[in-house]
Fold each of these.
Amino acid sequence: MENILTQTTARPQATAPAPVTSAQPVIQLREIEKIYQTKTIETVALNRVNLTINKGEFVSIMGPSGCGKSTLLSIMGLLDEPSGGVIELDGRPVQAYSDRELAALRNQKIGFVFQSYHLINDLSVLDNVELPLLYRPGVGGKQRRERAYAALDKVGLSARTGHFPSQLSGGQRQRVAIARALAGRPEIILADEPTGNLDSVMGEEIMELLLNLNRQEGTTIVMVTHDEQQARRTQRLIRFFDGSQVS
Ligand SMILES: Nc1ncnc2c1ncn2[C@@H]1O[C@H](COP(=O)(O)OP(=O)(O)OP(=O)(O)O)[C@@H](O)[C@H]1O
């Protein structure tokens, strides 16, 4: 099977992907607030954020440290609850979903990629990729393995299934993390500084992989980044400052 890494387009330093033809919102944030309260200080991490992510978009989010980017991604991915406002998934407020439905959405609809990979060092590459599928109802052992192999093939790591994370480079570890997200066949990938720990060559490799996923598979991607060049290659760049969208 051809992997996504090798399916480079005719435009290596590709411009932004083709625009989405009909806007179909998958995530909508309405007046989202997040306030962290500790004993000594109250922090307004998100200040009445309104944002729509459409199906098939690749959106990047930039802003200075502490402006609320990771908080925003956690709330979009239903990992954290806002202090106020409404999140809609596929046009339906998340409050309307039962806890069970929400858990299923988090597990099936959304894939996460983090700066520090979050791989389990004691598990092989294959087992790491299979892990989230253990909690997926209706996916048996054989299917889990097949999906994990297919996902690793897509990111060009078929030859490394028996390796452990410590035997891989940073870029390869991030590719395993992306394969782990892909094995769940998510419609949306939320990536928090996916190239933040990588040198420019490996960072470029991961960026190409994400761009190809978006272009070829139509995966909706929201990526937090500190890299302006990478951000400019996505369809839409949103800038944050002090918990608010500024452009
Ligand atoms: N669990 C928490 N408890 C208290 N304050 C928090 C918590 N998590 C985040 N914050 C605060 O909320 C604000 C936004 O944090 P967040 O991690 O979202 O910023 P960021 O833009 O992702 O930063 P960076 O680029 O450094 O990762 C910061 O002021 C941070 O200190």
Amino acid sequence: MLEISQLTKRYGQDDPVLTGLDLTVEGNSVVAIVGASGAGKSTMLRCINRLVEPTSGSIKLNGHELVGLKGAELRRARRRIGMVFQGFNLIDRLSVMENVLAGRLGYVSLFQAVTRRYPQADIERAFQLMERVDIAHYANKRADELSGGERQRVGVVRALMQEPEVLLADEPTASLDPRTSEQIMMLLQSLASELSLPVLINIHNVSQAKTYTERIVGLRHGKMIFDGRPADFTSDALAAIYGGIEAAQDEPPAPPATTRKHEAPHEPF
Ligand SMILES: Nc1ncnc2c1ncn2[C@@H]1O[C@H](COP(=O)(O)OP(=O)(O)OP(=O)(O)O)[C@@H](O)[C@H]1O
């Protein structure tokens, strides 16, 4: 179970990017995090895997506090958090298998990692997972010879090799065509259920969020303003999250014609 309470993040002296966020995700729940560009979605995921240090608040993964961890403790905690990226983050010149086994780096010794002598059990698990997502036949191919969808499957398997207790996906489909995006969303949904893994997905595509997740969390200006089932994500909720002008709350709303390009949401539909 992931329990976030009163999470606040401020970069430097700037206004907080996340303010007093509370979120609990249990079991095999798949949660979409939606919000306009700059709402704080990536910052939230980065606070969970501690790529950024929360300013205050608590993040517990199965009862263990993640905030404030350092050194070896932080490295151990990070092993339990799988991450899938928009740009896949594969090492192009390495094979699919080598990329997948990189998910075990937190568990093997430096000698095993450098000499690529991974335990047999890791190799077997890698094949099982690659078979599960239909990329086993590419095991020896270079990662850069794969299509985007295949590369994202490698990214997913690498994250699962960590035996994570939660899976975070930051815009996992944003670089993929619509059909491949849907396949990846479907895959994340099935894996969550097969592996009893909570999955949090930052996503701009609201229609995919509604179809492939069971809960939608909407952020606006770093505050959670919607938390509910896709069926309850009405046009009012959509307007509250994306609508109008992305002005700070204490500023008067600008007329629609003056909407600034950088404030527009990324393809919310
Ligand atoms: N390392 C950083 N230093 C300073 N400000 C940052 C940093 N990372 C993000 N921000 C700021 O925090 C705010 C939230 O950014 P974040 O990337 O979390 O939003 P997002 O909702 O994920 O946006 P997008 O959908 O465009 O990825 C933005 O105003 C951004 O400029």
